[in-house]
Each structure stands twice: as C-alpha cells, then as structure tokens.
Design brief:
The chain has about 675 residues and is mainly beta. Helix content is about 5%, strand content about 40%. The protein has one domain. The longest helix has 8 residues. It is globular.
C-alpha cells in the first residue's frame, strides 16, 4: 500500500452544549405473545457450481436480492396524534432543523500509519461467493452484505446477506459450515433453480451476544415473496434466532414476529398505504439491536411497503431472561411511532454494552442515539445538514420481566458539531471484469461474439463505468454505552485538503435519565477525515477502560475499498488511520451497473453498515472490502466468472474481521 506522511490532526471538541427541551414520555404500544416456530442449527449444505443460472438473470430476483427498492417517497407522513402508542410531539420544542444548509466542516487530514500494532488478528470473512453458492447454489445474488457481528464465550458469529458462519475467537478459524439464512430460519430456498420458485427475502441481519445469559441473538427483516411471480406478498416479519446455550454451533430457537402493522396477525394498524390513501402493509427496514440489563431491543425504520411514505422508527422490546429460556411463547412489547421535536425518529440506534455496563436508574434504562439530517424524505429535514443529535431513553426496562411491561420512552435534542449528508465515494481505477464483459462486443464466447452474450439476450449499451460507492446518509451508525457514557458515530461530508469527501463524526454523550426528565450533553466529539479518500460506514465501540475503536471502509485515490480503523481514548485523542485489510481491486458487483440496478439508484450500494463489538478482552471490527481482483482474461477462463474461485460472475465483495487489543495499555 502507499504510505502517507501527512501532518495533520483530527478536530476534537469538549463542550457542554445547549439542549432542546425533552420530548414527553411515551407508553409502550402493547405486549403480545409470539410463538416459537421450532429449533434450527447451522448445518452443512452443498456448494453450488459456478455456472450462470437462468433465473438469476431475471431483473426481479436480482434487484430483490440486494434490498427491496423503496418506493418513490413523497412528503413525510407522520403518525396521527392521539393514536395508541403515539410518541406525542411538543410544540414548544426548539426548531429541529436549520433554516438553510449548514456549511461543510473543514478539517485537517488524519495521518496514516502503515502498521496496526493493536490488531492481533485479521481474517477474510464471508463474501459474495459464499452467499451465492450456499444451499447448493439455490441463492440469489446479494448486495450489499450488511455486516452483523457478535462475539462471546470463545466464538465469533458473522452474518451477512444472506449466510451465517461461526469462527473460533482465538484462532479465527471456522468452527461451523457456511449456511444460507433461508434454510437456517426455516424458509424455502431463496431461489429454487430446479422449479423456478422463489423463497422469502431475508435482509439486514444483526447480531448481539448476551453476556449475562451466554446467548447469541440474530435478528433480521423477512419479506414474504410469492413463489411464482416473485412479487412481495405484503407480509413481513422480524425474525429472531436465539442460541439455546452459549455454543452457537448448537441448537437455536426461532421466533417470527409479524411486523406489517396493518392490523392483521395481531399487529397494530399504523395506517400505511399503497398510494397515499388506500390501506396497505408497512415494512420494517434497517433493524438494529442493543441490550441493557433486562431487555433486548430491535429498532426499525417503518415505511409503506407499497406506498410513498416513511412513517416512524419503532422499537421491538424483549426480556433477555425470557429469550435465554427460549419459551414456547415469547412476550413482545412494541414501542411505537417514535418522534423527537415533532419530527419522525429515523435509525434510532439502541446502545450495546459489556456485562455489567448497564444503566440501572429508573428501574433499568436503555439509551438510543440518532441524527436528524436524513435526505428530507424520512425526517422532513430539507437541508441534509444539522448541528443537533437526538438522545432517547427507554425506562422501567426491568418490567420486561413481568407479565405486563410498562416501558416509557423519552427523547430530547442535544447541540452538536455540524454534520452533512456525505458525497459518494469515487473509486481508484482498476480491473473490473464484469463491467468490461458488459461493455465487450468483440470476444468470441460459446454464446456468440461479445462477452455481453453470457448475460443478455438483447445487446445492452456498452457504456458502464466504475461506480461511485454509496457513503450512506448522515444517520447514526452504531451506539455503545460504557461507564455511564454513550458513544456514537455517523457519516458526514468534510472538506479535507480543499476537497469535499465522505468522513466521520463521533460523539461522547453524558446522558441523564431521571424519572420525569431526560437531558444530556456532548462531552467530546470530533471528525475523522483522510485527504484524497473517503471514510464510510463508521462503527464505534469503547472498552471499560474507555479506550476504543472506530472501524470503517476506506475508499478513494489511494486505496481500493479497504477496511480501516482509528483508536480513540477517554480524552478524545484519535489515533492515525490504520488499514486493517487492504483492498485488492475495484468493486465489481451487479448493483454497480445501470444495466442491472437501473439509473435511478445513483450509485452502487455499499455497507449497508459495519460492526464493532467488545468481548471484554478485545474489540472486533467488521466491514466490507474487496479482497481479490482479476482481469477479464482470468474472468473468461473456465469456470466462467470464478477468477480462481475468488468471486462469482455477478459480484466480488468480501468482508474482513479484525481483533484489536487495547486493554492493559497505558
């Protein structure tokens, strides 16, 4: 890799900031029972061959696989005031949005270190080839991976769209096979190539280890699919698998929580629509998971599944003790329709903690953080900028261990440094054989003249370009609670060396949740930027000694898509950028290209989030990068598109997992 010796610092601010008045308390929207559907375990399945299969070339399965396209959303539609479980807005709160766009912060570039002295292990994680080949190849091409990672009891569980594997946390070696999530969660195959029938669409996996009960918990959103037409049925669930013991290679119990929230299957009616007026199902997007002493919490972003609107954030709350006991019927408490300062909650990320690092006040409190920039469609913020973040506190969480939980959610705004909707991440040029194949009209293949004939019956335009990668928006990307402080990180536009690029803003928050009042202040915060390169999808975790890590992907002039990190200490000092896993080439996956993904997407999906967790001894980070590269000549060799068994014809993403030791250092 290229060495950088750029003299610079990362801005750190330590201020007590003005707070907006808190949002009134919200009672939970109701508790219901969810039956277990049985047990599962990670089992060996056959790996499919490399050949291209007809159904994977149909537009619908390919677009469906990497994420259901959200409809074109119109003006924000908030929940109706007075409906059961509404988080009622307060008209006296301070203005949540700036009147005009805020200026892009200008920061000095971080230094880059060519050594990673804290990193004691880095391994290549799951990749596109693993996903596409699982279950005898009865999978669809999936992008982006969505990095789920949980560590504990000597194990590392990694889950992506749409496979799972367990590693040994000491050696980093696999202790389970790779299994597809459709089979693991007891659904038909994602695509049965023998019959042409499609299975359910499982997206956005998340994972957490419960150190108090030694249980691993995986959650994701599942969208029902009509097997023949491959259209969405309208039914969707939050699926949960909890390990029956501390060994994730053993049995797990599975629960499927109906989540269309249209009044059917025991769900509340959130009045989602198909066209702004006709009733239709809701859809729970982007689930994320956290825990406190008593509960496990899954937050989601609720959209109309077939209609124009974003609704609000939701929180699905469960008793940790009950989950660990894997009962025949599990209590679910839904905290509905979250708002802050009159604007819908969006990506309200629940905090995670090590054992014993929980807020015990108010009979148990779970904290959340979120930003309120958005893209103008979810939050209503038309500027894509802000200098406030939202603090949330769910109190009386010990009541989750009773027959009638009585949870209360509060929210408030806290002043912060400016953050801005970030730009796309341009890639360093390099070989991209799928792109070159689509553009090729001269190579002789067994399908005819032109490599494009391997994929298409009708000749496409031969003008595909190397894609700029999605830098996400400015939503919160992870939240961690330790020693009474909350830590969070988000993406932002930064001006580094005179150039606007994607970077990171991080926060250290001191929360105060009293019985009738919520307040907080940002004690420290700062930016991380790297000249000539983009830092995207940050994930932050702090150890009990208040030394931590922010992990991210590095993309730009000097680096093919790589994974990296910086260290962070209790005084807010940030270390140099360290490359954990250096990228080997260009992102070259189907959703990079207009012929597959359509021109409306604007850029290739990336991420869709990273991960950082502490196991009490080490911090683990995981994220997306490009582990291998090949030329068009190598791509054309038999088996086609395999490039020496490093990729599949339609994609080449990979993940990396890095173990970082910060404990015991002065």
């Amino acid at each position: 890799m290229k060495s950088h010796r750029i003299s610079a610092t990362i801005t750190v601010i330590a201020l007590a900031l003005t707070m907006a008045r808190e949002q009134p308390a919200l009672a939970a929207g109701g508790t219901r029972l969810v039956p277990a559907i049985g047990t599962t375990r990670i089992s060996e399945t056959e790996v499919g061959a490399d050949e291209i299969q007809a159904h994977e070339l149909a537009a619908n399965p390919i677009i469906r696989s990497y994420k259901p396209a959200k409809p074109q959303r119109g003006p924000n539609v908030s929940a109706q005031v007075g409906r059961r479980g509404l988080h009622t807005p307060d008209s006296n709160l301070s203005q949540p949005f700036p009147n005009t766009p805020l200026p892009i912060p200008a920061v000095r570039s971080s230094k880059v270190s060519t050594t990673s002295r804290e990193a004691t292990l880095t391994v290549e994680g799951l990749n596109f080839r693993d996903t596409r080949g699982a279950n005898n190849g009865n999978q669809v091409s999936a992008d982006p991976p969505g990095q789920a990672l949980c560590v504990g009891n000597g194990f590392v569980v990694e889950v992506v769209n749409s496979v799972i594997r367990v590693l040994d946390s000491d050696a980093g070696s696999a202790v389970s096979p790779i299994q597809d999530l459709n089979t693991f969660f007891a659904y038909p195959a994602a695509m049965n190539y023998a019959t042409g029938l499609a299975g359910s669409n499982l997206i956005d996996p998340v994972c957490v280890y419960d150190p108090d009960h030694k249980r691993f918990v995986i959650a994701l959103t599942t969208l029902g699919v009509e097997p023949v037409s491959q259209g969405l049925t309208g039914k969707n669930t939050i699926d949960i698998a909890v390990s029956n013991t501390g060994d994730p290679t053993g049995p797990w119990t599975v629960y499927k929580v109906p989540a269309q929230n249209d009044g059917t299957d025991g769900t509340p009616n959130h009045h989602c629509t198909t066209d702004g007026s006709t009733p239709g199902p809701c859809f729970q997007d982007y689930p994320h998971i956290g825990q406190d002493a008593y509960g496990m919490y899954i937050s989601t972003n609720e959209f109309d599944l077939f209609g124009p609107a974003y609704r609000n954030a939701q929180v699905f709350a469960f008793s940790k003790k009950e989950l660990a006991d894997h009962p025949a019927n599990l209590h679910l408490t839904l905290v509905e329709n979250l708002t802050v300062a009159g604007t819908p909650g969006y990506t309200v990320w629940p905090a995670n903690s090590e054992m014993g690092q929980y807020e015990q006040r108010n009979n148990g409190t779970e904290y959340f953080l979120s930003t309120i920039a958005g893209d103008g469609l979810e939050t209503g913020n038309p500027t894509g900028t802000n200098n406030k973040i939202a603090l949330w506190a769910l109190t009386n969480t010990s009541s989750l261990n009773t027959a009638s939980p009585a949870l209360r959610m509060r929210s408030t705004l806290i002043g912060s440094r400016t953050y801005i909707y970030p730009p796309k991440a341009a890639q360093k040029p390099g070989p991209a054989p799928l792109r070159e194949c689509i553009n090729d009209a001269t190579t002789v293949t067994n399908n005819g003249v032109g490599c494009w004939r391997k994929f298409f019956g009708t000749e496409p335009a031969h003008n595909e370009q190397i894609a700029a990668l999605d830098s996400q928006d400015a939503r919160m990307q992870q939240t961690w609670f330790v020693n009474g402080r909350l830590y969070g990180a988000a993406g932002t536009a930064l001006r580094v060396g005179g150039r606007v690029q994607a970077g990171i803003i991080w926060f250290q928050v001191s929360p105060e949740a009293e019985r009738e009042h919520l307040s907080g202040e940002i004690e420290k915060q700062g930016y991380v930027g790297l000249a000539g390169n983009n830092l995207v999808y940050p994930a932050i975790t702090m150890g009990t000694n208040e030394r931590g890590v922010i992990g991210f992907s590095v993309i730009g002039t000097d680096y093919y898509p790589s994974t990296g990190y910086v260290t962070l200490d209790h005084d807010g000092r940030v270390g140099p950028v360290r490359i954990a896993a250096a990228g080997a080439g260009v992102s070259d996956t189907f959703s990079d290209y207009v012929v597959y993904a359509g021109s409306g997407l604007g850029s290739k999906r990336w991420g869709d989030y990273g991960a950082a967790v502490s196991d009490g001894r080490n911090i683990w980070i995981g994220g997306e990068y490009i582990a291998h590269s090949c030329t068009l000549t190598e791509y054309l060799a038999i088996p086609f598109g395999s490039c020496n068994a490093t990729r599949r014809s339609l994609g080449n993403w990979a993940t990396s997992l890095t173990r970082i030791s910060l404990f015991g250092r002065d």
